Automatic annotation (TrEMBL):
This is Response regulator transcription factor. InterPro entries: CheY-like_superfamily, NreC/VraR/RcsB-like_REC, Sig_transdc_resp-reg_C-effctor, Sig_transdc_resp-reg_receiver, Tscrpt_reg_LuxR_C, WalR-like. Residues 146-211 form the HTH luxR-type domain. Pfam families: GerE (PF00196), Response_reg (PF00072). Residues 4-121 form the Response regulatory domain. Keywords: DNA-binding, Phosphoprotein, Transcription, Transcription regulation. It comes from Streptomyces decoyicus. It comes from the Bacteria. The modification 4-aspartylphosphate is found at D55. CDD domains: LuxR_C_like, REC_NarL-like. SMART domains: HTH_LUXR, REC.
Length: 216
């Protein structure tokens, strides 16, 4: 079955460009479009897309609130990619904290857009850019630190989280720690569960906000 995508952006030209790029792929189809975040939840319930490509800044309901609404009210929600003009954007950061799985720059090359959609559809997460890692570190706070301490990660899980925060894939972590791929997958799942994180993106944000890791 092809990956189905819902496009959400208040600019028709942006939606048209994304549609042209995605529908040129044999394994991706555009299930529908919306011009504002307020339409997202009903469309998700109707179309059941695998991925939402959602503008972060929209007039009626922005991508942050639309992300929260989808994750709060839709059983087995789709993966969410926020789409933005600038990566150093508080809106993008808040959308990721709200549960979005990654973001796309509107100036991204077609191959990068296709790769991002495929990656999140498969359950992967995009690398958090340096600008957003610094933003997360700048929001270091006692609550995040207490949450991480309460998670009581084992020494091995802490190693895995540090490597996740550097953007390493499961295969790369396995090579670095000399572990089997399935063992690493189990450790990653345990880290996410203990942190209450939807995916790697939220786990990495928690690692930076708690001061467990630092950018650079």
């Amino acid at each position: 079955m092809p990956i189905s995508v819902l496009l959400v952006d208040d600019e028709p030209l942006v939606r048209a460009g994304l549609r042209a790029i995605l529908e040129a792929q044999s394994d991706i189809e555009v299930a529908g479009e919306a011009g504002d975040g307020a339409s997202v939840v009903p469309l998700v319930r109707k179309l059941r897309p695998d991925v939402i490509a959602m503008d972060v800044r929209m007039p009626l309901l922005d991508g942050i609130e639309a992300t929260r609404a989808v994750l709060r009210s839709v059983p087995e929600p789709p993966r969410i990619l926020v789409v933005t003009t600038f990566e150093e954007d508080e809106y993008v950061y808040e959308a990721l904290r709200a549960g979005a799985d990654g973001f796309l720059l509107k100036r991204a090359r077609p191959a990068e857009i296709v790769h991002a959609v495929r990656l999140v559809a498969e359950g992967g997460s995009l690398l958090l850019p340096a600008a957003l890692r610094s933003m997360a570190a700048g929001r270091r706070n006692d609550r995040a630190r207490a949450d991480l301490e309460r998670a009581a990660l084992t020494a091995r899980e802490q190693e895995v989280l540090r490597l996740m925060s550097r953007g390493l894939s499961n295969a790369e972590i396995a090579g670095r720690l000399v572990l089997g791929a399935e063992t690493v997958k189990t450790h990653v799942s345990s880290v996410l569960g203990k942190l209450g994180a939807r995916d790697r993106t939220q786990a990495v944000i928690a690692a930076y906000e708690s001061g467990f890791v630092a950018p650079g």
